[in-house]
Structure formats: structure tokens, C-alpha cells
Amino acid sequence: MQHNIFATMRSLNMMEGCKGTQVYAFNPSGKTRTTGYGGGGGGSAGEKFLQHLQERVTSVKSKSNRNYQALQPKDNVKSAVLAEALASYGSPQTDLIEPQIESYLKSVNFVETLADVYRRMDSCPQFEMSGMYLEQCAIFKGLSDPKLFRRCLKSGREHAVDVHSKVVLSAWLRFDRREDELIGVSAMDCCGRSIECPRSSLVSGYNPESATDPCTFHQRPIQNEGTEITVGDEECSTSISHDHEDDYDMSFCIGDEEIRCRRFNMASLSRPFEAMLYDGFMESRREKVNFSQNGISAKGMKAAEMFSRTRSVESFDPDTVLELLSLANKFCCIEMKFACDAYLASLVSDMDSAMLLIEYGLEETAYVLVAACLQVLLRELPNSMLNPNVSRLFCSSEGKERLASAGHASFLLYYFLTQTAMEEDMKSNTTVMLLERLGECSNIGWQKQLAFHQLGCVMLERKEYKDAQKWFEAALEAGHVYSLAGIARAKYKRGHMYKAYKLMNSLISDCTPSGWMYQERSLYCRGKEKMMDLSTATELDPTLSYPYKYRAVSMVQENRIEAAISEINRIIGFKISPDCLELRAWFLIALEDYEGALRDVRALLTLDPQYVMFHGKLQGDKLVELLRHTVQQRNQADCWMQLYDRWSCVDDIGSLAVVHHMLANDPGKSLLLFRQSLLLLRLNSHRAAMRSLREARNQATSEHERLVYEGWILYDTGYREEAISKAEESISIQRSFEAFFLKAYVLSETNSDSEASSYVIKLLEEALRCPSDGLRKGQALSNLASIYVDVDKLDNAIDCYMNALNIKHTRAHQGLARVYHLKNQRKAAYDEMTKLIEKASYTASAYEKRSEYCDREMAKSDLRMATKLDPLRTYPYRYKAAVLMDDHKEAEAISELTKVIAFKPDLHLLHLRAAFHDSMGEPTSTIRDCEAALCLDSSHADTLELYSKARQRSNEQQST
């Protein structure tokens, strides 16, 4: 099992987001308080507690009127601070914390769902593939790896046929990258890729290959500079050439004006004109036709005559083209309508023009014009929804009908709109109305499941429990079994606890039990039964945070604070989230470990800068300011030393806190923001990492630095070639460590042949010649060593790793161990990993890697420890399953893999289980697991080969 240091530094196995679920809901006054975001300062009681923190209380007199006497505080400072905290904010209470009902599609048999989707995609007509990729998006939304969702979104755009789908998917891709947060980038800018180009989206037709090409419209303005759209009473002359007056054989009379025309040309505009001018009507026998009552001006009719000859509207002003569009609709002039539609669409470039023209487009059902306006509104999300006209158009039933009449109301559109609305404010009326429109646009099973389930989740958040139950029941009727958990929760909130328990109990009995089922049932029971359900939930799915939080808070209520910290550390050790960090910070404050509490609050605010502590009473940054005075003050130089120390100890949370402190001292420092993004990526906090990276780009003080950060943004969102171009452009301006490092990194991920490796080595050597700090140079040395290993230059690799260790890059121990192993020095390799375990705060990967350098029993011990520290690491499960297969314990091997696949449907785990089924002569199970794996990655060569063989074997069995 080879190790790639690059993957360590910039892991893309990232979780979808870090939305904080507040863990405090106790109100000393006895009034009900809503948990979650909101609120301001902590009031007088809170200020009193904060004063205690600042003054480091030396003695506190006992007061009989405190409402926390049940805890019986001891007569010491620690008890006084804890008691004051409880009095001011209320301690975490087990009865008032609960897990959220997830708002995405969740299958009770995820592997079967993946396999079914792959089978349907495999036989799906090409023109319908875009819809299948959208279904995949909905399924992958609940997974921790955002690359899967984005890849499906890109595939959906590549296979889109109609303009509407292209417009929505392109806007969604742009929104997913949050490009709107980049200073100097406007909504309609072309980023150079056809797949997201606003002008490419307005071109109809199916060509999936061209979607990935460089954009042909790149750097061309949507509208010529200086062009101003005015629609109304402005006078504008229409230039008409009368070179062939003798050819005119009729006239249209409008008021006192006479517009000379050729009968044949005008008849060619449409079948109604042809019938009027040739098919026996009175007009067919007249040289002059009165056209005054048809709602078109003389200027407009002159333009229509010109169009009948030139088939172009380019020379007309927008007001005239709008008249022609209306005439085209009345008289079914298809070619003229298309020309007007396309011309007006080309004028749409910003919110002002979009809002001006969309009403005309909807009124005249101008498909491309409405698409162009819709594109601007979508690319300006979420800000465009602040416009009441936009909100009314999207949210109301009437608005949806108007969009539908123009061909622009779809499940896809409202799916995108609801996702942006739910991110902004899940409980808003806007979110509810958009979800109602989504439900109206739902045609097939999975669409109804999603729309109704999300409506249930929103109503639950709004505490409208009767409506929540109704929508969850509708989702269940549509086939979404997970919505039973929503029904149970709504019943529980309405006071029917026993009914909720029975509902979850029947679900556990009827289905293959999952961790979330036992977690949900635990809410509806007490005592030992509850703790047993929570224990089973953790056993089946160790990634669920609620059981750890509940157990930790229970321990606090028993005055076992150290045990509570140990319990919450179990989940924080492999899955960092704001709510768990908040809980640990509270415990640490109770123990008067203000340094540790400050560390956790700083890390928490890096994940979510707007987080509000203590059930919405205290802004996190204010708590930082107050805790800061209770610990040793550090200047920027001290912080750099501390960062080196934390980085060397592989303490990513500690490093994150130090960087947060340094940014407070030196706000807007792009280098620190970039370092922050790297740490967040290592902690699988992709969304927060990208936010930091975008901010680093915005704060960059030089062009070459800005280009580097743009390159990383492109790389992290799947555009590798563009990332390399940014690095090269940066190098052309100024040679820098980060530019060379970026180019080397992306190339090493893209190509692995010897020629490419030699080039990457040269790039990294150039990077090391440029100025940088030891932290980054240590990483570059490790990356360089890794490439040397790949090209079998082991002595060079050792030198690099040793140099990295000399500047305290502790992770180099792992690479050095790999080299020793390749040189058949297993004892030396084992010792290197032991050194890493002794130095590092996070050691799960070190235990996993050390297992490769020892005998079977010691390896089992190390892998057990790795799984205990981080149950998301898949290698220990694969190793254990392989050992069981070697011992001919096939059923146990498959059971081992099944257990982890239930909470981590990993490609390699599915492939391995498929191979095990194949070796046991079970083609049906082999095919199912292969299909599930290929749904995650349709190009995985080993799985494709196994799938082909299994299908062939299955066909042979059926034929016999």
C-alpha cells in the first residue's frame, strides 16, 4: 500500500459542510428558548460570568438563592466558575439536545439504491442522461465527499440537451464554487470553460464532448460596452433601404402612414400571413391593407417588411424588436420570433437588463429571452432573491405558471432554488414556498420523496409539527422510508412519545437495522434502554455524533467532567464539527482550562465565523476576546513558534486555533488564510476550506499571489488544466515557492509516468530554491521525496525526508518508514512509525501505517487502535476481511465489510466485497456490489472487469 504525501496535504475526501447544531437550550428563567443561531449578548447574568473569567476569581461566597444548587458546588474557584456558568447560561441538558432529521434522500439500503441507479443509467437513452445525473446528485448530497455531488452536477451539464437545463446547471456549478465571493468577478463573467459559460448555455443541442472544451466566447463581452437597453417611448429611426421600389406590389396602412411591401415576402413570414394575402380573403385582392388594429406601429411594420427581405433584426433598436416579437406571436411568424428572441437575449447582461426584459419575455413566451434573464437571476443567487419581483416570480404559483408557459418551470430549477434557500434560511417563508413549487414540479418517485421530505424537515424546524407530519407521511407514501423518522419526531413533538417509539420499533423490526434507527428510537425511551440504543447506534454507525454528545452531557450531570471530555474527544478525533467543539469548550471552562477552551472556540469560529455560543446568547468572537485575557498573551512571533510546535505535533485543531489568533493580530493576511485552508482540508472541512481560500485570493496583495490561490480553487473544484495555467501565469510574473508547488502538485496528481515525475522533481527543486517558511518547505521536501520513491531513487528520498525532519516536519517519519520498508528494513520502518505515534496528536493513520511493518498479531493490534481512533479509515476493515478470507471464514469476511459499508459506502470496500462474493460463486451479489461501486466511479477499471465477468457467468448459469 503506497503512500502519497500529496494526498496527505490536500486530501479531497471532505465532508459536505459544518453546520453547527447548538447543544444548549436551558433557560434559567424557565421560559422556552429556541436553540440554534440567533441572539446577541448574554444579558446581566452572562456579563457577570464573563467578569469572573476576566478577573480569574480567587474566592466566591456561596449564595443560597442560586438556581444551580442541585449540583452542590465545592468551595473552590473551579466550582464557583462552573456554577456561575450554569447560572448565567444554563448547562447542557440531555433532554434538550437531539439529532437533526437529515434533509436529503436517505435509503435504508444504500447499496441497492446505488446499484439500481447504475443499472438504469447503463440502459438510459443518451438524451435522458442529464436527468439521471440529477437523481445521482440527490443521492450523493448526503455523502461526506463533495466531489461526488459536483462530479454528477458537471456530468448533468455535459449531457444537457435543452437551453433551460444548461442555464440552471451552469448556474448551479458556479454557485457550488461560490465564485460570487471573489472580488472583481461579476455574475456573467466567462471563466473560460464552456460548461459554465453563460453564452454557451444559451445554445441548444446535445454535445457532451464540447461541454468540457475551452469556451469559444471566453473574454468576449455579452453586450458591447456602452450599449444601453431602453424599452419604452424613445424615438429611434429604422433605416430601410428602398433599392427596389418597383418590386413592391402592396401596402400596409397604419394610421396615416403607408408601408410598401412585397406580397410574396410578407406571405413567407407565416402561414397566417400567407392565408391572408393569397387564400381568398379580402386582403388578398387589395393593394392596400388596413393594419391599424393589430397593435403594431408604422415603425414596427417597416421593420417587419425589412425582416421579410433580410431575415435579420440586428439593425433595429430593442423597442422595435419587442414590437416585432409581439407581431410574430400574433401571426405565428416562427422565424421572426426566433430572431427577435435571440437578439433580445443577447442584450441581457446584468440584473437591470434581466428585470427589464423578463416581463416581455414571459408575456411573449420568448424561450431564449426568458432563459437569458433566468440565467442572470440564478447566477446572482442568493442576492437576487432579495428583489421582491424575483422572489414573487419564483415563489408564487402564478409565477411558476408563467415560467411554465415560457418553457422554464422544472423540477431541476426548483431543486436548485430550494437548495440555495435552505442554505440561507431553512425556516423562511421563501424556503417553504419554493419547496411547495418543487413538489408541484415533481413527476417521478424520487422527486416526490425529496420534495415532500424536505418540506417535512422545514416544517419541523419551524415547529409546525402537524404540517411536518403530513409532509413526512406524503414522502413515506412516495417510497421514502427514512421519512418514518420524521413522522416519529413530529409525533413526539406533539406529545405522542409512545407512538413515536412504536413507529421506530416497527422500522427496526422490518428493515436491516441501521445506526440512525437506534439513535432515533433512543429519543423515545429512558434509562438503560436509552443507553443501550445509543450504544447500538454507535456500534452500527460510529460517525453519528448525537450518541457521543448525549453520553458526554450525561457524565457532566453526574459531575464527571473529565470523562465527558474523553467521550466527546472520541468523535472530535475523526469528525470535527462546531457543536462538538462548543460542547468541549464548555467542559473545559468548567475545569478552568481556559487555554483549551480558547483553542476550541477559535477552531469553532474558523469552521463557522457566525457561530453563536451558549444557545444563542453570546457571539463566539466576544467569548474569544474575554477568554483571551485569562491566558498568556502572545505576539505574532510567539504565534509563529506556537504554530511550528502544533504543526510538528500533527495537532490540526491546535494549529487552526493559532492561525485564527494570528489572523486576529494581522487581519487579511492572505498567506495565513491560505494556511488555514490547508488545515481545514486536512480536517475534511471542505466548505470552510474553500471559504478561507477565496478570502486568501481576495486579500492577495500581488497579482502572482492571487493567481496561485485561483489555481488552488480551480484544482479543488476539478479543473486541473486551468489550475496549471494559473500557476504558469504566476511564474511568468514572479518565481515563487507556492506557484512552483501548485504546478508540481497538480501535475503529480494528473500524470504518473517517469517523464512527468522527472518534470515534477524539477519543479519542486525550483520551489525549494524560492523563499518560504519551514512549514511549507517541509511539505515540499516530503512531496519531493515521495516522487523520488516513485522513480526508485530511494537514497535521494531518504535525504529529503531527513531534511524535512530537521525542520520539524513530523509527518516525514511516515515517508521515511516507507523507504526503509522498500529497502527491506522493516524494523527501521516500524521504529519510524513509532516515533510518529509518540510525537503526533492525531495518530490513527500512523497506527494504520505501522501495521504494515510488523507481524500479524501486532498488525491486528495497531489496526484495532486505528479503527478506535478513526472508524472512517477503511484499510483496517479491508485488512481484517482479507485475513478472514485467508482463514476460509468467508461469511465473517463479508460481514466485516458489510458492517463498515453500512456507514461508509466506499468504492474500494464495495469492490473487495464484490470480489469475495465472486470467489464464493455468488454472481448476483457480485453484480450488485459492482454496480454500486460503478455508480460511485463508473471508470474504475478493476470493478468494470469484475462486473463483466460476473455478468457473463450469470448469463451462463441462466442459460443452463
From TrEMBL:
Keywords: TPR repeat. TPR repeats lie at residues 778-811. Pfam families: TPR_8 (PF13181). InterPro entries: ETO1-like, SKP1/BTB/POZ_sf, TPR-like_helical_dom_sf, TPR_rpt. Gene3D superfamilies: Potassium Channel Kv1.1, Chain A (3.30.710.10), Tetratricopeptide repeat domain (1.25.40.10). The keyword Electron transport does not apply. Pathway: Protein modification; protein ubiquitination. This is Ethylene-overproduction protein 1.
